[in-house]
Amino acid sequence: MGCATSVYASVGKKKRIVQESVVFVLQLRVPVQSDLQRQLKGVAPKTTVERLACLRNQIQLVAEDTGGSAISELRTALEEYLSLLTGIVKKNCRRDAVDLLLKASGYLEFCIREILTRFPPDIKSKLPDDMQESVLQTLSIQALGQGTEIQLGLAVDSQKATLSVKRRLACEQVIYFSQAYQCLSGCEVVSHGCAKKLLRFIYWKFLEAKAAAYYYHGLVTDKGNEPACHVSAVCCFLAAAELLAESKKACFSFCLAPPVTRAPPMWGVMKHLSQKIPEVAFRKSQTYGYLLEEEEKAMQCLPELPDFQLSLRPEEFELPEIEAGSSEGNQTHLLSEHLEDYSDNHDDDEDNDELDH
Questions:
Q1: How far apart are CA 96 and CA 169, in angstroms?
Q2: For residue 353, what is the enclosing H or E element?
Q3: For 250-261, what is each residue's pLDDT tens digit?
Q4: What proportions of the chain, in percent to the nearest 5, are helix, strand and coil?
Q5: How far apart are CA 80 and CA 48, in angstroms?
Q6: pLDDT per residue over 193-241, tens digit each?
Q7: CB-based burial of residue 290 (10 Å sphere; 0-12 exposed, 13-18 middle, 19+ buried)?
Q8: Which CATH number fits domain 91-300: 3.55.40.20, 3.40.50.10860, 3.90.105.10, 1.25.40.280?
Q9: I need a surface site. Which of 103, 182, 186, 255 has the fewest CB within 10 A?
């Protein structure tokens, strides 16, 4: 938080006096009270849960009694606590995350299909920007894209997953994020606020997905015996490397969009591919350099990615039956009052901001 702006401006010039640099570091906090034995019942072995609870209490006691000065004791307890905690996390957690993303996508689709369509125009016009139909639709598609990204990560970790499966998942991810970008880019609210930042996030993920798709498409194509297959594969690898570099710029653009955020660390499949793509692109271009010189025309056109039918769909969701005592007209009236209150408070906040400036 602020690391980028604290870098000295004159890059490349030696200075006798080093300017002060400010770096934001998260503080350590004493863990809150939590009944781990109840929360983890049936999830982890009883002995593991008891050991976790014991270590958690030990961390709390050391931190509170010493004010955090007993660094060695804290570090020992934290390292053992974290090793036990990460041992509970399994691949099933990632699969559960995919299921939750499908549920979230289903909730948003239901909201668009069954709720927004029942709003009168005067109420629709008062809805916040993040409740607009195009934004909700974008979030629904984004959830499917990120679910596919997790599936690709599982495939990369699996020895049984073939290159064709990985390529298919990467190509599906490209389609999802492309649809999400097109859905949001035509929306009026994208010119400001969180919608603008969301658009940059989706574009960043789209470039990452496309880099992965070209990488795996190159690996599949390179298995051919013809020289043209190797040339086409090298084109894919070089395109993947270029897209990866562009995705890093897009990530930086996303972070700078207000509200300004810190660049997240590489994780999942992109942590793996950020190292593999440049290595493979360099090695293959060196290996087949003589073919590239002979096939100059092939280098001028990038191979098209294969088109696959999308696998993930939003999970169907239906609301429970409405009680007989509730009135649709009364609900609409209450919603209208709520939105009027929101609009008034929002206008007051803007007026206060203008006065402050």
A1: 18
A2: helix 328-356
A3: 999 999 988 888
A4: 70, 0, 30
A5: 11
A6: 788 889 999 999 999 999 999 999 999 999 988 888 888 899 999 999 9
A7: exposed
A8: 1.25.40.280
A9: 186
